[in-house]
Amino acid sequence: MKKIIILGAGMVGRAMAIDLSKKHQVTSVDRDKKALDFLSDKPNIQTETLDVTDHESLAMAIRNSDMVISAVPGFLGMQTMIQVIKQKKDLVDISFMPEDVMHLDSLAKENKVTVVMDCGVAPGMPNYMVGYHNQRMKIDE
After folding, report:
1. Alpha carbon distance 5, 69 (integer Å)
2. 8 torsion bin: left (phi>0), alpha (psi -120 to 50), beta (else)
3. pTM
4. What pLDDT score was predicted for residue 117?
């Protein structure tokens, strides 16, 4: 069982926590306690109130996790991603953010972490899948 922390307990963050808790130990964090209340009685899900803009608290919260999933609003995405990378944690980010994150490649390599960004429902993961298959075959529609 991997220890996964999910940053953000909104509609998508909650769904991921429930799904991942079937095979992993999940911690769901959010600054809004009411968002966490929905998850408080679910097995294998711990909840914690946390403001991801508090970098010290974020570092403490993710320190024992095997993986971090960021489901924060897009305007918080870039700074959250930077802080997670600096803590040497692998990250999957599902929030779309307007900034270009490719300049973080060297920071991720320096900290020996893998970051999958913009991996939301759509656009997101479907774009990765189409791109992958488009390189291997001709896709018309």
Report:
1. 6
2. left
3. 0.85
4. 84
